[in-house]
Amino acid sequence: MMQVCGIDEAGRGPIAGPVCAAAVVLPKDFPFEILADSKKLSPKKRAYAEMVIKEKSLAWAVAWSNPSEIDRINILQATLCAMQRAFAKIAKSGITIDLVLVDGNKTPSLPVPAQAVVKGDDSVFEIMAASILAKTARDDLMRIMDERYTLWGFAKHKGYPTKEHFAACETYGLCPIHRKSFLVKRATNAHTAAKEA
């Protein structure tokens, strides 16, 4: 039987916090009915699915790329690096992987065949499981960051570019987990738009 590893990420769109990638290998007797795209599950269902995935999967791993790395190499490259790290952890478990299916339209460079699947988090069980682990891990981390950096509301928006988040950045400046490249780009665009108006 072909051994498939699914990979997905959470946190490409935020302006603060790391990007998180997860890799998952599921057994054929997994309760697949609990899986869906992580964004379509309620927090309660997501937490339950996370627990079952960690308990019943043949292997799972979560890996990160931090804001300074994102600023240095850009969000796409940082995401691919996080995916490589997650897969490397799976590879260390000793399981032979025949194929890696990655959500989206790009694949990281891996030592085994890899295929990108657009909307894979809606159609491939292994990617759904990876999307759940990546999202729950990142959301948990952003709640911890909210306790450390209390002024920016990270527990609420998880670092995504909401109106409230931008307002907090304008009032309090940036904290150490903000992605400077995103915010500089936005400020430059706003400045250019103001000059052209």
Task: Set down the secondary structure blueprint.
Elements: E1 4-10, E2 19-25, H1 43-56, E3 59-65, H2 67-73, H3 75-92, E4 99-103, E5 114-117, H4 125-148, H5 154-157, H6 163-172, H7 180-196
Parallel strand pairs: 1-4, 4-5
Antiparallel strand pairs: 1-2, 2-3
Helix pairs in contact: 1-4, 2-3
Q: What's a quick, concise take on this entry?
A:
By secondary structure, the chain is of the alpha/beta class. It is built from seven helices and five strands; from the N terminus they run E-E-H-E-H-H-E-E-H-H-H-H.
Mean pLDDT: 93
Strand order of the largest sheet: 3-2-1-4-5
In CATH, the topology is named: Nucleotidyltransferase, domain 5
Number of strands: 5
Can you tell me the CATH class?
A: Alpha Beta
**Number of folding domains?**
1
Provide the succession of SSEs: EEHEHHEEHHHH
Gross morphology: globular
Kindly provide the radius of gyration, computed on alpha-carbon positions and rounded to a whole number of angstroms: 18 Å
Q: CATH homologous superfamily - what is it? A: Ribonuclease H-like superfamily/Ribonuclease H
For the largest beta-sheet, the strand count, sense and barrel status come to: 5 strands, mixed
Give the name of the CATH architecture.
2-Layer Sandwich
Uncertain segments are none
Q: Distance between termini?
A: 62 Å
Quaternary organisation = single chain
How much helicity do the residues have?
A: 40-55%
Compute the number of helices.
7
What is the structural class? alpha/beta
Sheet-strand content, in percent, reads: 15-25%
